[in-house]
Specification:
By secondary structure, the chain is mostly helical. It has one domain. Helices cover about 80% and strands about 0% of the residues. The chain contains 8 helices and no strands. It has helices at about 1-10, 15-25, 30-50, 50-55, 65-70, 70-80, 85-105, 110-140. α2 packs antiparallel against α3, α2 runs parallel beside α8 and α6 (about 70-80) packs antiparallel against α7. The longest helix is centred in the C-terminal third of the chain and has 29 residues, at about 110-140. The protein is globular, with a radius of gyration of 16 Å.
Length: about 140
């Protein structure tokens, strides 16, 4: 399962790296690039709340965890529906950082999964946040 998670995680980075690259090389329109990037980012951020939903319903440590599990989806939706794309890029980037920090503080994983999951999340989140910065820099 560990190798599959890494493979899928890295594959999931393709839009985060590919869209800014295509936009920077003028292969796609900036508006479409920003819209596509924000949309993908919102979907992936929403996905990250799922592990906390599962952890909470399994009766683990934190009583607020089930509520926090919903925040990535709400932030993603707000960024898609109401927030200008440049601001949305910044907010989504912060969302990825905050949910990763929350993972480290609250998530209860079996001991055999803690090290590799933490390394996976740190690696993926670093690339995702840097890609958001790339998009923000490119749009200015």
């Amino acid at each position: 399962m560990k190798n599959t998670a890494w493979l899928l995680g890295v594959a999931g980075l393709l839009p985060f790296v590919g869209i800014p690259l295509l936009a920077t090389t003028n292969t796609i329109d900036w508006y479409l690039a920003a819209k596509g990037f924000v949309s993908y980012s919102a979907v992936i951020l929403s996905f990250l709340g799922g592990i906390h939903w599962y952890d909470a319903i399994c009766g683990n440590r934190s009583k607020h965890q089930i509520y926090v599990a919903m925040l990535p989806s709400i932030l993603g939706w707000l960024c898609l529906a109401f927030i200008p794309q440049l601001m949305a890029l910044g907010l989504l980037s912060v969302g990825f950082l905050l949910i990763m920090l929350y993972d480290k503080q609250v998530l209860t994983l079996p001991k055999d999964k803690v090290v590799w999951y933490t390394k996976l999340r740190m690696t993926l989140t670093t690339v995702v946040v840097l890609s958001h910065g790339w998009m923000i820099f490119s749009l200015n």
